[in-house]
What we know:
Elements: E1 5-9, E2 23-25, H1 28-35, H2 40-47, H3 51-61, E3 66-70, E4 74-76, E5 87-89, H4 94-99, H5 107-111, E6 116-119, E7 122-123, H6 124-127, H7 136-144, H8 148-160, H9 165-172, E8 176-177, E9 183-186, H10 187-207, H11 218-235, E10 242-245, E11 247-250, H12 259-274, E12 287-292, H13 298-309, E13 318-324, H14 330-339, E14 345-350, H15 354-358, H16 376-379, E15 386-390, E16 394-396, H17 400-404, E17 413-417, H18 421-428, E18 438-446, H19 447-454, H20 457-468, H21 475-483, E19 488-490, E20 497-498, H22 523-530, E21 534-536, H23 553-560, H24 570-577, E22 581-584, E23 587-592, E24 595-600, H25 601-616
Helix pairs in contact: 1-3, 8-9, 8-10, 9-11, 10-11, 13-23, 20-21
Amino acid sequence: MTANVSVFVTSSKSESFIKSDLFKQIPPEWRQKSALNEDSLLCDLVQSQSFLFELYAVWKNSQQDYIGFSYNNLYLSFTERKSDTDLRIPRINNNICRSYKWRQKDMPSVIQRGGVFIPNLYPLNKVSMSAHEDNVSSFYEKRIGNTDNIANIISIIKEEYTDLYINALNVCYGDLILPGLFFLLEKDIFDDYCTFLFDVLKKIKNKSPNHTAENYDYNFLSLVLSTIYFNSLSADKEAKKLVNLPLVCVDPRNLSINAKDIIKTVIKRENDIIKEKKKDIKYGDKINIVMSFDDIYAPHAISVINSILAHTQNCDDIDLYIIHGNALSFEKRKEMQAYYDKKLNLIFKEINNDFADQLPPTGNHLTQSAYYRLFVQEILPRGVDRIIYLDTDLVVCDDIVDLWNIDLQGHVMGGVEDCQGKELRNRLSDQKNENIYVNSGVLILDLVLAEKRYGQLSYYFAEVFYKHQNRIGYHDQDILNIAFEGDIYNIPLRWNIPGLSYFFQPRLPKDIIDHPDYETLPEMQQSAFNDPAIIHFIGRRKPWKQNCLTPVKELYWHYRAKHTDVKISIVQRICRVNYFLLVCNGVACLFLGKQFYVIPLRSYVKSFKKALFFQKK
């Protein structure tokens, strides 16, 4: 007899992605029936819009032999390929369903492998914005403000679920956790699991009956309890076999963006600029731009400078300061000085600061020069009262004068809120607040006001670093956001658009736990993405690397090629035109038109070697 299997998905926004007879929306009447329950826990779950309310509705109404649950556009891969890893994909189609066994016809072979299918456990800092030293208990304390609920979990389990007590201690004071409630369970295990989960949550609620839903964070508590429960199953030799599976995230963003049109618009602005007059400068008589790089990043800095010059008539009003160390050679400085001699005022300033050398490494795609923006006050000449700081992995797509003329409205610094701003801010702060966390790739800094409020900035930044070094993970960006917390002006999004936004990244986001949902872009954001003033290629997928598929990387190559002395190698030419193939963690992602294919390279290579071996024999 064929088993009846269904995976219930929670969000109506997932409907357009579901092309499989395996996935089912939760019927509205199930939700309505559960909503009529006057239980205080369920009232809290409804009020907080928790996915647990929908899980409860599935528990009380579903009758399938195997019951799955999924939310937030994340799904389990049911394949047996050892090469499969967590992945992010743009859509669900027939090819994807076939590849990940998301069809009813695949279920007999899937359920033969076990009765419990769940994701892998992850360290907290891999699926949230927790600090490296956090355990589950300390992370929850920072998140909510107390650990009473974690202590209550341990107490309740010790008294009523004694066989789970050691697992409870191990989970609550460890750093491993399930990234979410994504599972496929046999009916009897599903019933037992939900009985345990909602019973403990209800008892936690009863211990503090006057608390509101905000005092609990039921979603995170459910992950803690689920980790405890499933850990016990993996240790029980008599239990149904537990299978850990990779997660697949379906990118739900409905971006109405045509990258080719954007590229044409940006390049057309170059021709329009020729017909325009010079613009008035609001602050001082010069536009002071600061960059820092070494010999390795010099070709990319050239692309930035060329993009600035291509979009303004105020070139002779620009003073471009290059702050550098020994890693920027004299030969490279001389070469750039000669090339830009009559285009703008290029000024090199060498830094010699012991504090900069003592700061920790900046990561694989950054250099020590990333810290140099922290020392602009002491290295720039007196009279430079205001600056724009620019990273070297961006292109300017509009007139830099318009950025310079932005009124900071009494704030010391201006920047664009980071695409993970909320989570990054919460990681750095003990208290929840509405202060923004900005990306440091594009900044406006009022040096006069900063000195008046904070004194000598290099000393101040040093104090910030040493007081908060256990939390600092994003290096100079974290230091700046902590230093000027509450004193940062949020400039329009179009002045720092993440390049990766024009193309999804084929990997799971790090902050699964901290993201309540992946929303469709609001109209204002949509407008900014269609009319970028600066495109910033954040992360490791730089436009000059082969793993970057975002089509707007063409702008980087367009402005880099304007420097007649820059030679582009054959490999770089291939990189420039590659928009369809990406290799990531042993998996090839192939994009042909609107079709998306996942090719597990490791298994194909293994099969090829095996065939070759037998052929030789």
